[in-house]
């Protein structure tokens, strides 16, 4: 705060602080307060709002605890989101290491541009591209049939399709933090580990990954939160047996017309996601300050 006022002066610094405060209040604090208010109140007809039945309770949250199907989908969404983060890390880590330590400046620019260009269009269109790719008569099945790998077309929609679509959708949120962390690692440290007889696996496990743990944690946090709150990929690439918790929330709001129960479900998802993130950072011994960097 002091640096902000020192750099921009009292007037401009105060303006920046005020704009940030307005944005946080209007876009973060107010919606979440309204969500909590909706979640703790019953869904009543307009005539009964403000009446004796319009009181705060945990009924909407307890409904989720007692609804076996919804509870199962909720926990499945949590572990599946963690799986998305893990798979995205496995995909991004070798690429991030190569870009940070081995690629030339031109190679880095070309690869990053190639990865970024598809994100110039919105997520719906990118997910629809995966929908076409994984279709029963789509390019993937046609290729596998022509190579003789499969004898008949496969229905790729479901958990596998959602995992592939989300990994692609959030790859940059993992790649950039890991790349930035590994880029700051001196090549001499890697060379020293090799000179001392460390294998490639041990060098990465004992040198590279500990150095890049803040970037890895940041990428995992971003990817996990985005996956847990995703709606487009599960809705387009999922199957009846691979429903996502956000689809349940959507149904409560826009099909069931019960905003209170939908808000309760959303609140539970938010609280558990924040808990998982904080526990993960604690286990990785990474502070929120390091993630914010």
TrEMBL record:
Annotated ABC transmembrane type-1 domain ranges read: 74-280
PROSITE patterns, alphabetized: ABC_TM1
Q: Name one Pfam family in it.
A: BPD_transp_1
Topology class, membrane: Multi-pass membrane protein
User: Transmembrane stretches, by residue range?
Assistant: 12-34, 78-99, 128-150, 162-182, 214-237, 262-284
Compartment annotation: Cell membrane
Write the record's keywords in alphabetical order, separated by commas.
Cell membrane, Membrane, Plasmid, Transmembrane, Transmembrane helix, Transport
Name the family.
Belongs to the binding-protein-dependent transport system permease family. CysTW subfamily.
Q: What is this protein called?
A: Putrescine transport system permease protein PotH
**What is the scientific name of the source organism?**
Nitratireductor thuwali
- What gene is behind this protein? potH_3
């Amino acid at each position: 705060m002091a640096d902000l006022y020192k750099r921009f002066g009292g007037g401009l610094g105060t303006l920046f602080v005020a704009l940030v405060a307005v944005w946080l209040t209007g876009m973060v604090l107010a919606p979440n307060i309204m969500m909590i208010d909706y979640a703790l109140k019953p869904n009543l007809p307009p005539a009964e709002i403000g009446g004796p039945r319009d009181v705060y309770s945990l009924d909407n949250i307890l409904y989720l605890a007692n609804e076996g199907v919804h509870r199962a989908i909720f926990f499945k969404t949590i572990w599946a989101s963690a799986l998305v983060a893990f798979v995205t890390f496995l995909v991004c880590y070798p690429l991030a290491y190569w870009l940070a330590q081995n690629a030339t400046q031109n190679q880095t620019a070309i690869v990053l541009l190639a990865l970024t260009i598809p994100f110039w269009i919105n997520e719906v269109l990118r997910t629809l591209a995966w929908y076409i790719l994984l279709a029963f008569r789509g390019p993937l099945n046609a290729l596998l049939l022509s190579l003789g790998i499969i004898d008949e077309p496969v229905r790729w929609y479901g958990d596998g399709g959602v995992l592939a679509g989300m990994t692609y959708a959030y790859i940059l949120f993992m790649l950039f933090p890991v790349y930035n962390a590994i880029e700051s690692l001196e090549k001499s440290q890697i060379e020293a580990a090799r000179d001392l007889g460390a294998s490639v696996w041990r060098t990465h496990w004992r040198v590279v990954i500990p150095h890049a743990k803040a970037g890895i944690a940041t990428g995992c946090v971003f990817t996990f939160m985005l996956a847990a709150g995703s709606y487009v990929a599960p809705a387009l690439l999922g199957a009846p047996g691979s429903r996502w918790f956000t689809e349940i929330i959507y149904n409560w709001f826009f099909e069931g017309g019960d905003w209170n129960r939908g808000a309760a479900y959303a609140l539970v998802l938010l609280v558990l996601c924040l808990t998982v993130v904080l526990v993960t950072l604690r286990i990785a011994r990474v502070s929120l300050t390091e993630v914010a960097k």
